[in-house]
Amino acid sequence: MSNETDKHEVEDIDCIEAVNLLYAYMDGEIEDKETKAKYEHHLVHCRSCYSRMELEKALTDRIKAAAETHAPEKLQHKLRKLIDNF
Amino acid sequence: MLPDACTGSRRTVHFPEHDRSMRLDESINTGLTMLLFREHTGSYRRSDAGESVRKKQVMTDQHTKAWFGRHVEECMNSLYGLAFRLTRNAADAEDLVGDAVVKAWSALATLDDTERFRAWLFRILHNCFVSDYRKKSVRPVEIAFDELASDECEDDVSSFLVGQSDEFLQWWANPEREFANSMLGEKIIEAIDHLPDVFRITVVLVNVEGLSYDEAAEVLGVPPGTVRSRMKRGRTMLQKELWLYGKEAGLIPDKAGLKVTK
Hints:
The complex is a heterodimer of chains A (86) and B (262). With 86 residues, chain A is mostly helical. Chain A contains 5 helices and no strands. In chain B, 62% of the residues lie in helices and 0% in strands. Chain B has helices at residues 19-28, 32-40, 51-74, 76-87, 90-106, 117-133, 145-151, 166-173, 179-182, 185-194, 197-208, 213-220, 224-248. The chains are: A mainly alpha (86), B mainly alpha (262). Chains A and B meet through helix 2, helix 4 and helix 5 of A and helix 3, helix 4, helix 5, helix 8 and helix 9 of B.
């Protein structure tokens, strides 16, 4: 019953619209709650868009993990000395 | 809007951790904070308010320096990571971080929201890179005209994956394949480093550093719509590069049926 209610409450969007919202959704840039709900509703019943979003997320996570960098110890030391001398 | 550190317009900075001492100082001399910053930039003139004021200035100076040092340290890895992705060179990255920190200190009075220290510092580092380091970076900037043109185009292709068949998407999304996880980190870095400057820094700011489009726009001095289109373009280029690597490494079989067209 709740599924039936959901279907009536949330307007569906097509795959083209969903693709256009994909990155904004992933980056947390959809501010409009209704638009966000429409996109999420579409994901529930569109396997292609769901798969697309999942692998984009996996790729983004992988890029983030690969690109994270640690500052060398000597740089940290140099900066501490630099700031001490300000 | 973040202040432009390079223009150097001065405002009083509000340090939440030192509310008490700042209020005390300001009750004695409302211009103290301004004077303090002028002292750091070499234009400080001795106050007439006497010894007690000068002692408090020293205290505030130490607080300010400690606050600044702590916040620089907190975002050190991000700062170095961004510098390294920009210069693609460890020595230049270290110099760039050092220059940015020096400029940030001398422009500290332009920071009007301490909550946004990181983005403010990123902006200074980016400005330093554009004005001083770009010319001597390892590779010349190579942005093709068609890339620049589509950079400003809102209707740009939104994803390499758009238009792919369901079979392909389901194959790629199958957790057992773990295509994304099977890629070597160094190949991903290589793909990022191959992106032209404007796309590389945007992808790093948003994807790696987690800045919002608005924050990234402020760092780069462009409208948020440009960040959005650069993200789309940058991601598409990255996906293509990684796809080619996946094919060469045998991670993607032909039967997956990818269409390698826009």
